[in-house]
Write a structure and sequence with these properties.
By secondary structure, this protein is of the alpha+beta class. The chain is built from three helices and three strands; from the N terminus they run E-H-E-E-H-H. It has helices at residues 28-45, 101-107, 135-154; strands spanning 8-14, 49-62, 66-80. It has a three-stranded antiparallel sheet, covered by helices on one side. It is elongated, with a radius of gyration of 34 Å. The chain starts with 7 loop residues before the first strand and ends with a helix. The model is unreliable at 109-116 (pLDDT under 50).
């Protein structure tokens, strides 16, 4: 079994320390929640997926000789690494069987081989009209199509 592993880029941003005022939002809890929501939505709009919030220790210098440990809350985001093709899984396509020579003789055109296109069972009609310049080629294309439909009806 081949397991493809997606590679990610990570981004860590400091969590807001306090809420910001906004219209219609009252109370410190609601303001703080709104601020967190705003940060999450901004990061999501930039393509980052929220993973988790972490509180980690950080040693900081206080004065000339003293250090103190402060705890910081961080928001962790990730997104798939651009250009990562690990999820791409190509598959081999078998070539189509060549048509019998009898079918090729019926649809071949002596006068204008480049102006006519006939659809074969391996090549279904895609609904797009083929461009044909002369009237003789049009009638031969219609005859070829009628023969193809007759063969399909017999099968």
């Amino acid at each position: 079994m081949d397991f493809a592993m997606t590679l990610y880029d990570y981004k860590v941003v400091p969590a807001p320390a306090r809420g910001t005022k906004a219209r219609g939002i009252k109370g410190p809890d609601a303001r703080f929640a709104n601020t967190i929501e705003t940060v999450l939505n901004e990061m999501a709009a930039a393509g980052w997926e929220f993973q988790r919030a972490e509180t980690l220790p950080s040693e900081e210098r206080h004065g000339l000789t003293h250090t103190a440990t402060t705890f910081r809350t961080l928001l962790v985001f990730r997104r798939p690494r651009p250009g990562d093709i690990s999820a791409f899984a190509p598959r081999r396509v078998e070539p189509a069987d060549p048509r019998p020579e009898a079918d090729q003789d019926e649809t071949a055109q002596d006068d204008a081989p480049a102006t006519t296109v006939s659809k074969t069972p391996e090549q279904p009609d895609n609904g797009v009209e083929d461009v044909i310049d002369d009237e003789d080629a049009i009638s031969s294309v219609l005859q070829s199509r009628a023969q193809q439909l007759q063969r399909e009806g017999k099968q």
